[in-house]
Write a structure and sequence with these properties.
CATH architecture of the largest domain: 3-Layer(aba) Sandwich
CATH superfamily of the largest domain: Vaccinia Virus protein VP39
Oligomer: single chain
CATH topology of the largest domain: Rossmann fold
Structural class: alpha/beta
Strand content: 15-25%
Helix content: 40-55%
Order of helices and strands: HEEEHHEHHHHHEHEHEEHEHHHEHHHEH
Largest sheet: 7 strands, mixed
Strand order of the largest sheet: 7-6-5-8-9-11-10
Number of strands: 11
Radius of gyration: 25 Å
Shape: elongated
Length: 449
């Protein structure tokens, strides 16, 4: 037996001993499959259906040398680690399952480190370079690029066909509104559009601006069901072209327009403004300019609805500004340029810009359902997705959507709809209660035209 074979055998034996020890103490319901096909249960009741696969000793060596979330996710994206037995959401449910006998602290770190010695020097797997355009240092300072349009197009211009695989019929890429937990994603997204229109108290003939209009779902819905004249802006060329074609197909070009333009370049006066999933891209330092511009575009007494993802406030600004490993990975590979605020500071910035806050509603658990549905729908169409964007990018997105779903479910992320008016002296003109939002039946919307 030559030295190479001996080294390979030692690494495999070390990996087996580590896995067996972890399995004895963890009592989990999944297994680990090593590169020789050996499957080791991570608990006495492990279901053989659910298992991790590890592509080679170099993968373990890499993770032992650099045990970071980014390294783990990159190995998954590149296919060096696999999840088997169900889609990502199902597998994650099994991993996260709370079991009375789980005893992470009983794992003998000394034994693991001793056995890991042969693996530490395993040659790394050949790794392709995952596409990214953005990174930040520990202070949150951008160290590569600040081109807002480039950031937007990196995320949204993957391809319309890719987004069609997991979004609803209206191509809504923001939180749905589940009036009933059993409702479909398509129904939840229609109900979201309806609720936005109700909160804006839209009236026939009014001018509506949608900042960051996506694929045009809201401007088309509002024009058809509420008789408004709607205008949308986006920095995504593919979204712009899709929305323009949808407007033409629906025959509403006389009431709905969409531009490829930055919000800061807009002029005119609008009765109502919607910003749905847009202010995450603005940057917290730019809030005065952002909310100031929206106020300037809004008529006196006009209504703004700002809908966006938030993070929980921390005990100090330093702690809040810290970029977590998961956040850094998302900034690099999925959502470059994005920045999440806590709702308290957002409200402060809106008031400072001249808005009066009337209503704040949290939709966190709605987004958990939405993101889970997106992940499951994309998983079900894996081969189509791989054909469109490649296997690495498909896996990046699956990991991202699953992480988002659990972050909302666990409360690490939140989402809020804020209804505000351009502040003026005297009466605001807003209804005294939320009653008008629910007085009208959800099944008797104005007929589209």
């Amino acid at each position: 037996m030559d030295k190479t074979t001996q080294s390979q055998d030692k690494r495999l034996a070390a990996a087996k001993r580590i896995a067996e020890h972890v399995g004895e103490t963890l009592d989990a319901r999944f297994s680990i499959q090593l590169w020789d096909g050996t499957k080791i249960p991570m608990g006495k009741d492990a279901d053989g259906q659910y298992y991790f696969s590890i592509g080679g000793p170099g993968v373990l060596g890499s993770l032992l040398r650099r045990p970071t979330l980014e390294n783990l996710l990159n190995h998954y994206a590149l296919g060096h680690i696999g999840f088997h037995g169900g889609n990502m959401m199902e597998f994650a449910d099994v991993i996260r399952e709370k079991r009375a006998k789980k005893k992470h602290r009983d794992i003998r770190i000394g034994l693991v480190l001793k056995e890991a010695w042969p693996l530490l020097f395993s040659p790394s797997e050949k790794r392709a370079k995952l596409e990214h355009i953005y990174d930040r240092d520990e202070t949150g300072r951008n160290v590569k690029s600040r081109d807002e349009k480039e950031f937007i197009q990196f995320h949204y211009d993957v391809s319309n066909e890719f987004y069609r695989l997991f979004l609803d019929e209206e191509m809504q890429y923001s939180c749905g509104y589940f009036r009933d937990p059993v409702n479909s994603l398509d129904q939840a997204q229609l109900d979201k559009l309806e609720m936005i229109c109700r909160k804006l108290r839209l009236k026939e003939g009014e001018r509506l601006l949608d900042v960051g209009c996506g694929w045009g779902g809201l401007v088309c819905y509002a024009a058809r069901h509420y008789g408004v004249r709607a205008h949308g802006v986006t920095l995504s060329r593919k979204q712009h072209d899709f929305a323009r074609e949808k407007i033409r197909r629906l025959g509403i070009e006389d009431r709905v327009t969409v531009e490829l333009k930055n919000y800061i370049e807009l002029d005119g006066a609008f009765d109502k403004i919607a910003s749905i999933g847009m202010y995450e891209h603005v940057g917290i330092a730019n809030y005065p300019r952002y909310f100031g511009k929206l106020r300037a575009l809004l008529k006196e007494g006009g209504i703004l609805l700002n809908h966006g993802i938030t993070r929980r406030a921390k005990a100090s600004r330093k702690k809040f500004n810290r970029i977590t490993p998961g956040r850094r990975w998302i900034l690099k590979h999925i959502f470059p340029g994005s920045e999440l605020d806590h709702i308290g500071h957002t409200l402060e910035a809106m008031e400072a810009a001249g808005f009066e806050i009337h209503d704040v509603e949290a939709w966190r658990e709605h987004y958990a359902r939405t993101a889970r549905a997106w992940c499951e729908r994309l998983s079900a169409r894996e081969e189509e997705a791989v054909g469109l964007v490649g296997r690495e990018r498909y896996r990046l997105w699956i990991a991202y959507l699953a992480g988002v779903a659990f972050s909302f479910a666990d409360g690490a992320l939140g989402i809020h709809q804020v209804v505000a008016t351009r502040k003026r002296k005297g009466a605001s003109g807003m209804p005294p209660t939320r009653g008008d939002l629910y007085a009208k039946s959800w099944d008797t919307r104005r007929n589209p035209n």
